[in-house]
Amino acid sequence: MEKVNLSLFTAQQLQTYLDEHSLGCDEQQIAGELSAHIAASDVAQLGFFRQFGECFHKIIRNVHSYRHGLEYGFTAIEFNQYGWLKRALFLDQEEFAFGDAKRLHCESKLEIGRGPNGKWTYGLWCSYGTAGSVNGLSVYAPPLPSRQAAIDAGLADLKAKFSKVLGNPDTMNYRQAVIVKTLADIVAFQHSQVQLTLF
């Protein structure tokens, strides 16, 4: 891993890093900012970036995480023992389970949480049988305005994921009994949510 002279960023150091790494769009934007600040010898802005790590890889990734966290009101700049920005801890977390953990040994979950500024998001734990996926609560998801908006968006996403594999011929990884039961649970839960809003 490349090391950065913390007393001085150079254009060559940054270019070497960019030549050796493939960056996502947000990371390219941050690298572009760094490049502009280096060219302008903007000591104040370079100082801001330096606090996020001792190499370009950590600086760029930590700034990326920090900025996404700001969308939820997470402002702390704290690092774990490996030098990565600590994972944001959402408030008012709730979890809703779908499927049949006892009989079918498969359960999927919708998890919601609120940031300090009142913005909400959701995470999904999908179990289709043997196959599955996890996207837990994260600052990288688009912020939502309310608890109900997070529940609605999460349910729609979960339902879409299970509908996509309904009828999949790979019944080892995509057990149809699990998928049908989970979809039925989602529909029943959505119906209960509508009933609650009527009272």
Number of strands: 4
Structural category is: alpha+beta
Strand order of the largest sheet: 1-2-3-4
Rg (CA only): 22 Å
| Poorly predicted tracts of residues | 1-7
Give a brief rundown of this model.
The chain is an alpha+beta fold.
Explain what this protein looks like in three dimensions.
Helix 5 runs antiparallel to helix 6. The protein is built from six helices and four strands. It has a four-stranded antiparallel beta sheet with strand order 1-2-3-4. Helix content is 45%, strand content 16%. The protein is elongated. The chain starts with 10 loop residues before the first helix and ends with a helix. With 199 residues, it is an alpha+beta fold. The N terminus is likely disordered. It has two domains: 87 residues, no CATH class; 108 residues, Enolase-like, domain 1, CATH 3.30.390.
